[in-house]
## 1
Amino acid sequence: MSIYLDYQAAKPVDVRVVSEMTIYFNNKFANPSSLHCDGDEATDALIESRQKIADFINAPNTSDIIFTSSATESNNLALIGSAMRNKKKGNHIIISEIEHISILNIAKYLEREGFKVSRVPVDQFGIIKLEKLEKLINDQTILISISTASNEVGSLQPIKEISEIAAKKNVLFHTDAVASEGVIPIDVQKVPIDMMTLSSNDIYGPRGVGALYLKKGVRINPIIIGGGQERGLRSGSENVPGIVGFAKAAEIMREEIKTEVIRLKSMRDKLIQEVLSRVPNSYLNGHPEKRLPNNAHFRFDYIEGESLILSLKDQKVAAATGSACSSKTLEPSHTLISMGLLHEEAHGSLLFTLGRFTKEADLDKAIEVLPGIVKRLRLLSPLTPPELIKKYNEVND
Amino acid sequence: MKSTQYTEKVLDHFRNPRNVGVIEKPDGYGKVGNPVCGDLMEIFIKVGKNDSGEEVIDDVKFRTFGCGSAVATSSMVTTMAKGMKVDDAYKITRNDVADELEGLPPIKMHCSNLAADALKAAIDNYRTKSDPYVEIEARACSVPDIKIILGEDEFLGKGVYKKVDDLSEFNGKRVLVVDTGDKSLELAMKLTKHTGRVVVLTSAKTTPGSEELKKKLKLSDVKILHESELLEIQGTDDVEKVIIQDFDEDEKYELFVDTVIILEV
């Protein structure tokens, strides 16, 4: 097992969550729709779980929570479901340039179905431009979908302001909260959000479960039709063990988030400070303060990210990059490009994301090996200026 | 196969690349790829004669910016070519290099296996005896034509500036400064105190400006785009992005900026 600093990609399931789930695989396995006692047990588990998720985001009603199979499904339900429901009102949807790939691709699908999609640009820190958003809203606009934070560079979006603009203009507002749900508490009674996507794994619950918070009174169409579970908005027998695990994860997170965030933030700050001071020509991507407490996104001039990841892998450190060479499409990260980075800069990016089980010693290891790795790759690179090569060689002597 | 699932041989050449470096006064020099695409490699060769009087590659060195397979293929092609007859080395193909490495992930066959091409370019350069450095300098120094930048007038006052009074206007902005002489370069350096994002676009091949300015520019946080030209400024209400032409690669690409400064000379 390597030193795992890629919590944005996947998180381990907390053992407390696993033990809560087990009984629902074989002992309390029944279908909540069944009328017998066993079915009632499953129903009770569902009711209790829905309550825990509602508490997690301070939703006023448990019926506001729709369980789904994943955050991606929740995003599909929110965007496609509300677009289809409201297509007589208008055909215009607003997202941002730096949404998660699931939102970007759903938006492309809706464009093919005849909807018009506008993408709000971001500033150099990856934060959306509010004044642009306001100008983009027109009388055809039916939905704004902007994530709470960038899943890549970690920039926090002005969600409260966006939701207020949407409310004022009478447009639905959806937010994908996956990147922030485990590090920034969200209270849907304080921020007027209409729909919010949640993922179980991102708070150390099992994968294969997600939820959509749907404010009372907001009407959307289902995208999965069948037996009418989840108020008819998401048919299919409920994944009871998964939902129980998700709820337990939310319960733990609600109790521990405050202390956990203090710990993560202090480790992250140390990581950022050490890397920037030890590696010449290194930069922090995203906003210095308005960023996820567990996100440190760097870029290093003259080298390429996949080489960095491979070299870190040799040192048993797991991290991520926005470089094209590590992606399926061979395009660099759209987020970094939208922030105004040059392609070659986006290629040299490196993302560390910390989590519940990250220790100080893990970071020390990463800090220790990174400068040498960057140096080796720079000495290989034709882009490294002679001055820097000289500087590197002098330190050697 | 995942893009990073490499054979042991690829990993070996990535971890311990052979023949890294530069040959001063090479007989042939080849450069292929583009940092914009994520891969750039250069190969230097020295040519000698064997006992039968045939031309052979006496020495070969490389430098590469790129992913694991870009480094490994460069290293491999140099080990293959070293000591080889020039005619035979010219016949090395991308597939030969991949085979020697016991395979590459399919997606990497196209993008990163440029090493054979770089070697070919170096041999071509040797055969034609052309000096690549001289050629590029000559082109960059030619008198530029009068260019029309699409959107320049449309966005004047909406992100496009022809003169600048108050630098604090640019706090936190992503600024592109077009190189119109030393004044524009000085301005670019001053702007780095107001924003972390200053890019200078110049048609020059190397760092532009007077000798003294060059030194300062190199030490500053200004990013320089060489051998480039501004084609178009785009946006809905005000400037959102620009289209840039890279002469060296003959390619167009987008850069997201809020401000374009084209100081009047």
## 2
Amino acid sequence: MRFQDAARDARAVVYAGIQADPLVARLATLLAEAEASERWMARAVMNGERTDPQKWRRIFPSLFGEAAPAAVADHAERVLAASLEVANRGEQVRSQYRGAVVEELTARLLARRAGAVKRERRVLFDGVPAEIHPYDVTVESAERPEVYDCKWGARGINADVLNQLDDARAHAAEEEIELRVAIVVFDARRSAELRLDRSTARHDETRLVALESIDELAEAGA
Amino acid sequence: MTARADVVERAAAAYRALADLAETIEDEWQYVTDLTEAYLPSLEALAKTDSGRPLPTGPVEAVDEAIAEIGLITDPHRAIDWLSTFPHVVALAFGGDVDQPAGVEKPGATEPESDEPDDDSPFRMLLRRPDR
């Protein structure tokens, strides 16, 4: 088994420009330090119709109300501002930014415990045709390699994604390598589990990381 | 009807309308149905923890503002995103949660003694956090 950079087609080049936008890094950094309620706010704002910050402050009184400590409100304000910048990009572009943010957040959390965290990589196995789509994030450790597919919403979970992850795990096992595979969803665990419950694709050895527990990516032994 | 039960009823009605819009994506009918069947009872159950005390204005305004937000949605794809998000936004406003099926309490869960959020709410964790 070996990792390889994905081929850069035209779509990948455009997407790379979004991934490299400082807004993506700024928001991912803020979300990596955020609590779950701030992450819910970010999800709501980036899914939202309105871009008036005062409306969003009213929706989240725990973050912006009079009882909220100044440090909490200050951090939430920065998350709100960055999320609104994404929301203001327009529907087509905002969906690409949202995906890039989840990938960057995943990579940043993993980097707290793992050294070789990479993006847009394929996994190759001897005698097996390579998958077309690269993995969003990989941890390229010889002892404990990991691959992650990142989704903005639970709706992004589908049979293709689950099959690709499980196939990689199975092919690695044939080479006596324990490849850990996971899907990261910036959405509710309950929603993701509902989605998985209906899927006939094998996923019993694919880990689910949802919005509420995304910090576990950074934990040793995770 | 108390303020809390009243606003939860408005939220549930808005959620049903959102589900009606989302259902127009035929390929996602099953997922929309699953989401609605899971979250609607949990959303409605938020009213059952009503202590009878007057609800502070913050949570009521928050939920009404969230209802206004989803009322603006015309894109059924975005409606599906919100079917998963809206119940959690409402629960955050009340300091409750919608992660469990309605009627199933988390171990050790009790009705809050005050209008403050539950001990296991993200809001409470935020408030307790001394620094960032």
## 3
Amino acid sequence: MASLHSRKNGGSNLRDSMSKKQNNGVEETLDRLSQLPDALLVQILSLLPTKDAVASCVLSNRWRFLWYSIYNFHFINSNYKTENFIYFVDHVLTHCTSSKIKKFKLDFDYMSRWNFELETSRWINFAVERKVEDIILCSDDEELTYKLPLSIGNCSSLITLNLSHWVFDKGLAIVWNSLKSLNLYLISLDDDDIVNLLSGCPALETLELSFFRGFSRLEIKSSNLKRLTLASHWRPDAENDGSLEIIAPYLQHLEISGNLYNLMCRLVDVSSLVNAKLTFNNKCIKGIGALGTGGFDDEEENCDYSHQVLRTLVQDYLHKLSYATELSIGNCFREVLCALKFEGVPWVLIPDLKCKYLTLELYIGKFNLHGVAGLLRASPHADTLNIDIAIMPYDSSCRCFESKYSAKGDNNDMESWISSYQFPNLKNVRIGISVGECLKYSFQWQLRKLFKLSEFLLKSSTILEKFTITSEKRKCKRCSMNCESRLLSQLAEKLLGCARSYANPVIIFQE
Amino acid sequence: MASSTTGEKKILTLKGGDNEEFILEESLVLQSELLKNMVKEERVSSIPLPSIKSKTLVKIIEYLKKHAELTPSNKEEFKNFEKEFVNVVLEELLDITVAVNYLKINGLLEFCCQAVADRIKDKSVEAVRKIFRIESDFTPEEESEFRKETPEAFEGDLDDTTN
């Protein structure tokens, strides 16, 4: 922000106020802020919601016109009547003297029931003309989807674009040559849209789709695009048969999380992956049926079927992820590895993962120990293990899996199978609770499960150096006590008293 | 004057406002556009910064060191450090901001400006005046006239406290 616009009062006023103070014999005026150079004050005002920046005009003469030069705009319509909001945005933009806009952000965070299309087009065009770099458009209004003006397609100055509940026209000519980061929330795109979009953003590095639907193929040809996040499927739709193929040979970071319903993501080519996070949940078909998107005559059979599909898929993931050095994996891996073992699938069919840094997101469930053991067995190179426990209310959508294996899980064979394990490279283990439900009624049960798991890790890791239990201080809303912290501190105490392995790790309890 | 060296690392001396000297690796100050130019073009080994208080300089050097150690694995730790870095009394925050602006450490400048902005955000005009000790030179009539230009800017839930 070098260029400053000459105004009636701006500069001279600063000298006035300073000399006034000097005349009074005070060396330094108390109002340090107003003494800062214009460019700095404009930078500060540009980092405020635009409403606050404009309000600065009544602070004093010094501030009267400073906001005219701001180069970031952030309008939030929560407090306004719609026509007042429109007036305000128009007023601000008409007075804007910046020839270059860096960031333009619109937040519609309530049910406006007003179709802003004409106005939003005008505002976005304004930003596009001034070579805007970052556009962020958010709407929480479930009833209305806002449409981007055609002009945005040619906005080659764009570097980041975040849209939530905004759409662009099908077949929009996209020339986003500088776009590095694209983030779309609540978005329906078909396969052609995806191709059109990706071919229009040759410089794209990061793509994030949340609550997405409509496409079954995601092929990323550009070697610039290194980071892909898919978070939650946006309710299953009739047209999609529930499969998605990802072909991204240059991708280095992949995250698939949230609820995918029946969507099965297949990784066709992800051969450059370094870092992967696969912590999504699939509802088995039985669970989907209950959502009302179609019933099944033989629920149990379909449930079996979807678990079977998931099993094949996870086995394939393990092959595809075997070269990644950092992995975060969720519950379905645990389930599948456990099931494979129960069914006597030989270990040679499960590849060794090269992963060094392993994070497990787990529910405490029946086969915790077996699943974790299996996953660690599959990752012999891991030196750091993070376990994030999610304490969830019991998920009733599918009990078939657990009931099917419960008899097998309790037998002695399993215990001895596990106790023969050793993890030769594991140095650091950290356990924490990431999502917490009230523990009031399941305290002892959870403690027993956690203790068993921790004890197993301590016993089996021959060179373990540090075993950390981290607890966030937060008060439980249900029992108004710090039940989570109590659980973890009891766990730490119990562990200190239990037999150690060959190594003598430090056990740390962090709050 | 040639820069003094120990091993491969070039050493630089910064002199604060009260003549206190700070000796540090030259590579650290390259984050500052101003010092980078001085070091690269004029090949100096001692730079006087009379307008910057030593206390402020200590803070800034601490930041430069932390920033130089930043890796993908300690990002969280760095964020916490940044948070604490600007969690100081207003006077000190403004000292740092002015100094960082002068030294042209761009990333840190944006961060400092955000910290100043956060102390204005959602506050009423009266509270902002109190916090920053800004004296209004408008008559009440003028002020109410300006407020009428954009009444929306003064609506809503505004915080009157100076915390």
